[in-house]
Amino acid sequence: MKIVVCVKQVPEPSALLSLENGVVSLKTVPLVTNPWDEFALEAALAQKDRYGGTVTALGLGPLSVQDVLRYALAMGCDDAIWVQSDTAGSQVDHNMRASLLAAAIEKMGGADLVLMGCRSTDTGMGLMAAGVARRLHWPVVSCVSEIQAVNEPAKKIRLVRSGEENRELIEVDFPLVVSVLKDIGDPRFPSFMGIRKSQRAEIPFISARQLIAREEKAALTLLEQKNRPARNTALEMIEGGSAKEIAEKLAEKLLKETRSPVPDELPQASMEGHDQHDRDVWVYVDFHEDRISPASLEVISCAKQLARQWNARITALVLGTAYAEPAKTIFGYGVQRVLWLDNPKLQKYQAEDYAALLTFAMRKFNPAALLFASTVRGRELAALCAAELDGGVLPDIIQVETEAERVVVTREVFGGQFLSRMVNETCPQIFTVARGIFQRAAFNATQTGMPECLLVDLAESEPKTKLLEYMAGEAVALEDARVVVAGGRGMANFDAAPPPGMDSKESEIWRARQGFLLLSELAVTLGGSVGATRAAVDARYVPYAYQIGQTGKVISPDVFIACGISGAIHHLAGIKRCKLIVAINTDADAPIFQQARYGVVADYSEIVPALIKVFRALEGRV
Q1: Above 50 in pLDDT, residue 92?
Q2: What is the mean pLDDT of residues 277-282?
Q3: Which of 47, 128, 264, 282 is placed for a possible disulfide with 442 were both Cys, Cβ 3.0 to 4.6 Å?
Q4: What is the pLDDT of residue 152?
Q5: What is the DSSP string of 210-261?
Q6: Inter-residue contact 556 to 573 (CB < 8 Å)
Q7: What angle (nearest 5°) sits at the alpha carbon of residue 123, between those of residues 119 and 124?
Q8: DSSP state of 447
Q9: How many CA atoms lie within 13 A of 458 on its CB side?
Q10: 487 near 509, Cβ under 8 Å?
Q11: Which residues contact residue 196 at a Cβ distance below 8 angstroms, ignoring those fewer than 6 apart?
Q12: Tens digits of per-residue pLDDT, 32-59?
């Protein structure tokens, strides 16, 4: 089995970066292997251990990329190849990177399996797997949490993809491209012999000009990069003579701040009597068990902002045979048109078929822009469509504005330390909308309509990707939660005696899990979800699905309650969008207090039970 792992070099995720003449300066910052790619390396090496074969690390960029390739060799890769380019490392040129990586893989004679991390910690675009796969004309499976089995004689592999609502068991033909999640397995440490081998190795290189004679025109333009505005926290410490008194004061503050009236969405000019529109803005609407995905409702609200500025009509796109009736409900969310794309093959989600339908429709109707939610499916489809149309994608946008014919968007980069204003120069302009930024579109039962059905032919060939079954996923809806209660390494300080017979590590995990059960009780009381830091996940206190941060989930609840969390920079990257932060920590100097609106210097195991009692007595949720 021939496996290629694409590895990227990024700034140390915990480093504080700065701007120099509007550009992120990396002069004094250590450069390391993208943490997500370390999991891809582990997945590749684990398959080699199980089935045999070879693992080649493939890196793209300047001379310093050799460092991450040597690290891959030290972990156990058989060889490494460096694609030499001083410009392809541009943080906005994902098209060029995908083209070069695909060309390099072809020059290497192809592969059975290409692995990479699901995103990077610098720009966080998460588009590379689909972009490379489309250029190779291979299938792609994004956000894989488990490789179950490989049938090499039949050239098939079984994978588990973790999505927002569930997990999917998928069978795919070789060759294919896969992006992996942290669940795939903890990266192994480089061995002593591996380190010696990597130090002596001569890493062959291929010039970017050897792969692509003429550089592609950049699909994306970076207009401006600026520091993220400082959080206006105005920290207020909550004190009292007892845990009950502190809890009562804190509850009063939270109820006062979170119950102020908030409109469902920005006011919209009436469309009544106005049938002429300058442009068409499309929204891909995803369904789960006949229910519109909450993330799609946020995308509709983003589209409304764009439509007001552009005098545009909003068209909602629905794919799949099963959604004829549910599609009718979309009119109630304020769209002017619903286009239902149908084909008998669309019984279940298939990335290649869905992308084929979407690109067919875009070529037929030529919309000005197409918006997806920043979900597993949304990112995958956006990248596949853009690659098919030779265009670009701007993912995770948090703000939209228009300048004549183009949309100027703002997105977060480098763990949210900076904001980039960017433009997609291709048409249609394709974007994915960050979760939790835009209010969900409100439903109005008086707005009705009839979807337009577009029957689209698909190739009769057997699909390379088969969705075998849906499996239950972790019930951790962090991205959609209004309230999140999270714990860190401090959870292990829970004051309770573990069962006899446990060693020190088992006792630590047991105590921490009791602490998380307590946080879960508070979260349920407040109608929220439970989250965790990377340190808590790495220590096996809770599964990866709970992780918030640079290599976890980015959340934006109304209230975030941090318990026993110090506030490491990689965790702060996941909570920068939170509207109100409460910090409970025994260390008054913990960095988390610098981000908090309210702080409590105390043991969470005393304050949390008191909060539960107070909110239950109030019978109210924040």
Answers
A1: no
A2: 87
A3: 264
A4: 87
A5: HH-SSPPPPSEEEEEEEEPPPP----EE---SSHHHHHHHHHHHHHHHHTS-
A6: no
A7: 30
A8: -
A9: 22
A10: no
A11: none
A12: 999 999 999 999 999 999 999 999 999 9
Measured in whole angstroms, how far is the alpha carbon of residue 452 from the centre of its chain? Answer: 32
Between CA 73 and CA 245 the distance in angstroms is 57
Residue 226 tokens, joined:
């600026």
pLDDT at residue 213 in the model:
61
Q: How far apart are CA 274 and CA 453, in angstroms?
A: 24
In DSSP notation, 285-324 reads --EETTEE-HHHHHHHHHHHHHHHHHTEEEEEEEESGGGT
Backbone dihedral angles phi then psi of residue 63, each to the nearest 5 degrees = -55, -35
Coil vs helix vs strand at 235: coil
pLDDT at 31: 94
Phi and psi at 153, nearest 5°, equal -60, -40
- Report the mean per-residue pLDDT for the chain: 89
Distances (CA, A) of 338 to 70, 139, 328, 529: 52, 29, 8, 33
For 273, phi then psi, to 5°, come to: 75, 10
E strand map for 163-266:
166-173, 176-180, 205-207, 220-227, 236-237
Q: What is the 3-state secondary structure (H, E, C) of 550-595?
A: CCCECCCCCEEEEECCCCCHHHHCCCCCCCEEEEEECCCCCHHHHC
Residue 617 makes CB contacts below 8 A (sequence gap 6+) with: none
3 state SS of 443: coil
pLDDT for res 265: 43
Predicted confidence at residue 400, as pLDDT, reads 94
Q: How far apart are CA 358 and CA 483, in angstroms?
A: 35
pLDDT in tens, 117-175: 999 998 888 889 999 999 999 999 999 999 999 998 999 999 999 887 778 899 999 99
**pLDDT reported for residue 267:** 40
What pLDDT is stored for residue 399 in this prediction? 94
pTM of the model: 0.89
Per the CB < 8 A criterion, the answer to whether 524 and 552 are in contact is no
Average pLDDT over residues 374-393: 91
Contact between 522 and 608 (Cβ < 8 Å): yes
Residue 213: DSSP 8-state: S
pLDDT at 218: 75
**Is the four-CA dihedral 417, 419, 423, 429 of positive or negative sign?**
positive
Q: Once rounded to an integer, what is the mean pLDDT over residues 205-223?
A: 79
pLDDT at 87: 62
DSSP at 104: H
DSSP label at residue 148: E
State the amino acid at position 391 in one-letter form.
G
Q: Dihedrals φ, ψ of 44, to 5°?
A: -65, -45
